TrEMBL record:
The keyword Membrane applies. Belongs to the EcnA/EcnB lipoprotein family. Residues 1-19 form the signal peptide. Residues 25-45 are annotated as: Disordered. This is Entericidin, EcnA/B family. It comes from the Bacteria. InterPro entries: Entericidin. It comes from Trinickia symbiotica. Keywords: Cell membrane, Lipoprotein, Membrane, Palmitate, Signal. GO terms for cellular component: membrane. GO terms for biological process: response to toxic substance. The keyword Membrane applies.
Length: 45
């Protein structure tokens, strides 16, 4: 069970980094997501 869990986390991490190509890209993607949530919240005030 533990091996499967570790394998799952490694797979998710690999996919996330591959999709962003770099750790910097991952930070930018997360930042854009935060800005989108903020903008959406401000529109609905």
């Amino acid at each position: 069970m533990t091996r499967r869990l570790i394998a799952l986390f490694l797979l998710i991490g690999t996919v996330a980094l591959t999709a962003c190509h770099t750790v910097s890209g991952a930070g930018e993607d997360i930042s854009r997501g935060g800005h989108a949530i903020t903008n959406s919240a401000q529109k609905h005030e």
